[in-house]
Amino acid sequence: MSAPPEVEAFVRRYFEGRGGSLVEEEPGIIRARLPETLRPAFEGVDSLRVTFDPAIASAQPAVDLACVGSYLMDRIVEDATRSGWHTVSRIEAGDEPAAEVVARALRPRNAEMSAEASGAEAVPHLLFVFRVRLTTDERVERIEPVLVDARTGRERPVGPPVFEDRLALPEDVGFDWARVADAYEAACRILEARIAPQVEAFRAQADALRRAEVERVQGYFERSVREALDSRAAGGADEARALGLERGRRLAEAEEKYRFSGEVELCNVRTILLDVTSASVALSHRGARRAFPVEYDALTREVPPPACEVCGAATREPVLCFGGHLAGLECVRACSFCDRVHCRDCVSKDGAIAPCAACRRAMCPDHAEVCALSQRPFCPDDVHACAICGRTVGPSYVARCENCEQRYCVVCVAPPQERCATCRSLAPAPAADPAVAALRRADPALAKVPRWRRGSNTRYTVLAAKGLVWSQVFVLDAKGAVLVRKKVLGA
Description:
28% of the residues lie in helices and 32% in strands.
């Protein structure tokens, strides 16, 4: 049974990629002529006779079998891993509209979003595949791919398609070795930052185990040496010296066992011609509009989230503040009474969002009222507009009239009777007064009251029906509805 087709394809690509020529010597057997640079990997021979069929290998002398696990295959894999292997691949952009790609990645919290692509460009990227090996008393080994944009030196996310052989293109696609070297340095920095947390954790674990082992060995031999020295038997000192030597040997073994070792090996380099689509994204609402560029590649179709312009953190749910800035949820303050929202920069510089002096709720300038007496800002729920003088005042400057029981500013409610200016200015009113006539019609008992007094402000009408001993006070709103009706002694 012959080797699988992918094994034969790999072997052929290996020899051709390393500069060797392949000739079909006879059916089932190929001769690989090796250049001088490749001969050391195969014990100095200048050519090999290779077959992929075990039956041919057993029947023909001096023919090497190339299959999984064979001696020749192991040498090929070892050399390919050691020297690296460069190929060129192309990943093209699809037909998905930019608006759909962007909408899938970004979810603005308070704005409408639109996106328009400006075109796709084949951008050279370099894929470096590293083998990372960490060793102490145990061994951890893993493969780490790093995809670097050759234009910027920045990393891009890696997807499965970059490892597919079907992407390979002819090697005559040009590439710049200086660019490869620069990208390699960038990839090393990226890899170092990526594995640093695991390396530190692995090293710390090994150090903790080493210290525990050293303490155990030290404790055991200290007890043993004391017992030997305290022994009355002859030779106690010699035994103590022997134990000291054994302790040194055991401590050296512990140090060697838990010594940390880290190795990174470059296994493969591949040039990826990756289509990168540029698009213009616009966020808008009633207060602001902001456009910014984005780009995404054909490999992952991931749109990098914009950075918050306050703290710099990436945010996939950007908020468009009314000052035109993009910010994250943690860096904005919204008005409690409308959809107006501002970032922390706008709040600190322009005072766009301020807290109510009473309830501390956030409010924008459209909903902030300044107390005429304290000059402090209050929200609509906590500010009071005096119906007599028109002042807007905060809760601390509101007083209640004892007569009509309505609330006004403290200036318009005078002690000691604590009556408002309207109640203090009641004047005689004829029975034909519309407000008096309406009350007399509603309550026939009031028709007998001969004397009425009346006072009004912008919001309320106060009527007093004067009796011999008791009087009745009525407070009407602007529509004539009775808000208060009570008996009082005197006028």
